[in-house]
Amino acid sequence: MIINALALVLFGISCVFLLSSPGAPPEKKEIVSVEKTPQLAARLQPLCLDRLFEWEGRVYILAGPPDLQTLDRSGIPYLVESHKFPALSRKPVTLQDGINGDYHSYAELETDLQALEQSYPQLARLFTIGLTLEGRKIYALKISDNAALDEEEAEVLFLGCHHAREWISVEVPFLLAKHLLEHYTTDAEVRRAVDESEVWIVPLVNPDGLEYSIRYYRYWRKNRRLNADGSFGVDLNRNYDYGWGYDNEGSSPVPASEVFRGSAPFSEPETQAVRDLFWQREFQSLVSYHSYSQVILYPWGYTTALTDQDALHESLAAGMSTLMEAVNGSIYGFGASAASLYLTNGDTTDWAFGISGIPAYTIELPPVDQLGGGFFNAERDIQPIFRENLPAALYLIDWSISDFVASPAATREAREGGLKGRKQSQGCFLQ
Ligand code: 0X9
Ligand code: CA
Ligand code: CA
Ligand code: ZN
Prior knowledge:
Layout: H1 2-11, E1 30-35, H2 38-44, E2 50-55, E3 58-63, H3 65-74, E4 79-80, H4 106-119, E5 124-131, E6 137-143, E7 154-160, H5 168-182, H6 188-196, E8 197-202, H7 207-215, H8 269-280, E9 283-291, E10 295-298, H9 310-328, E11 333-336, H10 337-340, H11 348-356, E12 360-365, H12 382-406, H13 409-425
Zinc ion binds at residues 162-163, 166, 237, 290.
């Protein structure tokens, strides 16, 4: 069957999720294709249509009634191909039903974060750290004893979902927040962590992208920036300003690329939100969750050279990996990003380490490979994946507490002063 072959070729799966947008009266969307010639491409480009993919010399576009009118008016010949995409004709769905199963949509996460704050007013405070291009809020939940107060305690940052399709990366930091709050009174280790640190959790850095991935295209990765050439999306994990655009291998200057670095460092509201939170606080360590490949990575990403903190990074990663394996037997490899994975520039962890010197980890959650499910983790795997990541998170919090206590206030102030200096001086690469 043609559509299976198509989907297999393009995405390695046999089903493309394409669903009508809820809210306003359902607008019937069609998938249409236009022949890919230079002439037609030039006429299509200014129309800002939602291109899905290209296949066998045709460009496939997701088009609502106004888009079809635009095409008609422009005299661009197209074929309606919707019958090849059965998922498109499915009944419109709402955010609260089973469309993404046990995974969180933006609205579901918002509800759950607000509920946590309400249930644990002493221990949790919810902050809005930024607004996306489509007007959604980027939330940070602060967890600590006396959460309303800024106390002299170690701070740790956990980030999720820079990449829209990596759904599991929302669940792990969210469940970490929930676990810390629900076990505060009963678990001595959790209590100590919450009492002696300030844990900041941003489970969903890229809400616009996640919603797009849930409703329209499961494999969406970037945010939903409308780029100058009519394509959509900036790779948020290439938009930080340490080594931004260092070369064209670790990120791309081409807007349609999946690793487009954006028009400038920190051009995106999502990375600005993380940056501003980072500047306002004084983090001791950071984890940014991604998927998939089941590894723990640390800087550098932009070069295969090792940092001057490699021994520390490696020993903390080894500690985390050992604790993780003990839970379900899953082995998380670890290593410096570029040396063990591939080059990236402008990512969160290079930036965080580069400007402040703190240990900063990318944890690529399971599965190990595409055969194990790639970006699709079964719902029943959410809990086990969280369970095996919990001791690693607690270990890093614990290390941060010790490091905070051990480092003299003067050292910390110097570092904080350094951060503030960087905030003013902006450019900070390779100083
Ligand atoms: O490419 C990325 O952004 C991350 N992998 S993913 O499959 N989740 O997209 C890896 C980032 C690793 N960090 C560095 N290499 N610095
Ligand atoms: Ca506190
Ligand atoms: Ca503090
Ligand atoms: Zn990712």
